[in-house]
Amino acid sequence: MKIVQNILNSRSDEDGNFFLVLKKILGFNPKHLDIYRKAFTHRSANRKDAQGNPVNYERLEFLGDTMLSTIISYHLYKEVPSGDEGYLTKMRSKIVSREHLNELGKDLNLIAYINSKISKDSFGDNIHGNLFEALLGAIYLDRGYKYCERFVYRKVIEPYVDIERLEGKIISYKSFVIEWCQKEKKTFRYEVYEDSGNESLKHFSVKLFIDGNVISKGRATSKKKAEEQASKRAYYALQDKMG
Amino acid sequence: MKIVQNILNSRSDEDGNFFLVLKKILGFNPKHLDIYRKAFTHRSANRKDAQGNPVNYERLEFLGDTMLSTIISYHLYKEVPSGDEGYLTKMRSKIVSREHLNELGKDLNLIAYINSKISKDSFGDNIHGNLFEALLGAIYLDRGYKYCERFVYRKVIEPYVDIERLEGKIISYKSFVIEWCQKEKKTFRYEVYEDSGNESLKHFSVKLFIDGNVISKGRATSKKKAEEQASKRAYYALQDKMG
């Protein structure tokens, strides 16, 4: 806290705000704000550096794309010792799919911080994934490979990468939970409430009760996703019983 | 040297030999010989682990391929600040081309250490690139990202990656040197001699003389490559004059 305060004191208000926004997204202290500023700059802003080179997120996106691919590859290598090269390649492309990246960028609400001459409403869906990749590139340049890897674990792998689900063994954790409760003659209910917190994006929080006890919680940008997250957590919490 | 001796003493002769071979290829001490053994094991050897999973280099190749791509991407990002995403992608695919990887594996003579039921002569050219990628995967698992990056710099980027040449601005350094000498009215000659050293692969060493003075040296697995390497070094040594 003291370090943050010192950094804030030595910067302008604008820098201080950006620092806090980043710290919240990243989960650690960013060192070089300029790199992150680039990661949020769209080409329409027409920024140039002293040498006349365009300053926008596109080059960082190139870097972040390959970083993500490498980190996911290593995770799959470790987690699936029985998977051959073809299997690992197929699983990786599911995880780093355009659709999935867009979802990740959207969940972090990265578009809120974009510097662009174009209105936010007129971007297509890919802007979310592009900003997410650019952010990974920026993290690598700012803090190196390990920080980038940790961020990917926290924001991509832990919440979303589920090998059983990717393999199609489990399509929906919610239906899995429901079937299990019916088979075991247990009652269940999902208690959902809208919650915006301090964020500009609306979030949904959900508690999953089984036989009247809270088994797990979920929080996401849609009711469906929050329920699925709570169900997934319940699945792991109860794995022995459900096995 | 003392450390190496201790490691050697504590291992079998076979391990000791493999350790020394690896140390020479890698330029550092390998820690987990098993990982490297896997990197040299072809599927035809039919090795399996205790769980029945196949043990061969194919999964390591998957890992090495993405590591190489990431390390080259970062190098290009740094070195070509004016290159946009499309340019960086194009340059990367030139550097990590199948042909180039095969050359790298061949130069390190990796096939000499392969464990396979198939005769070495019956492999196609791709075996060289596959072994090179698997070796990168093994380095990452054994010593982490930084060691892998340093190895790629020493074995790929420093000797082979030349952005001006990849851009097609310079096709051959040898013809560049010859033209320059003719224009500047200087004499030149390449002095080549075959040299096998301790390696099983034949090497060629070359000295480039300009006006009777040794300007640069080269060493490679063909006369042509050694001359090109010496010419490239001369190009950089004389860059101010040649500019």
UniProtKB/TrEMBL annotation, chains A, B:
Entry keyword Cell division: no
Reactions the enzyme catalyzes: Endonucleolytic cleavage to 5'-phosphomonoester
GO CC terms, sorted: cytoplasm
Annotated keywords: Cytoplasm, Endonuclease, Hydrolase, Magnesium, Metal-binding, mRNA processing, Nuclease, RNA-binding, rRNA processing, rRNA-binding, tRNA processing
Catalytic center residues: 65, 133
UniProt keyword Transmembrane present: no
InterPro entries from the UniProt entry: dsRBD_dom, RNase_III, RNase_III_dom, RNase_III_sf
NCBIfam families hit by this protein: RNaseIII (TIGR02191)
Binding site for Mg(2+): 61, 130, 133
Domain RNase III: 19-144
Subunit note: Homodimer.
Subcellular localization: Cytoplasm
Name under which the protein is recorded: Ribonuclease 3
Record function comment: Digests double-stranded RNA. Involved in the processing of primary rRNA transcript to yield the immediate precursors to the large and small rRNAs (23S and 16S). Processes some mRNAs, and tRNAs when they are encoded in the rRNA operon. Processes pre-crRNA and tracrRNA of type II CRISPR loci if present in the organism.
Family: Belongs to the ribonuclease III family.
Enzyme Commission numbers on file: 3.1.26.3
Lineage of the organism: Bacteria, Pseudomonadati, Bacteroidota, Flavobacteriia, Flavobacteriales
Matching CDD domains: DSRM_RNAse_III_family (cd10845), RIBOc (cd00593)
Organism: Sinomicrobium pectinilyticum
Cofactor(s) recorded in Swiss-Prot or TrEMBL: Mg(2+)
Stretches assigned to the DRBM domain: 172-240
Gene Ontology biological process terms from the UniProt entry: mRNA processing; regulation of gene expression; rRNA processing; tRNA processing
One term of GO molecular function: metal ion binding
Gene3D superfamilies, sorted: 3.30.160.20, Ribonuclease III domain
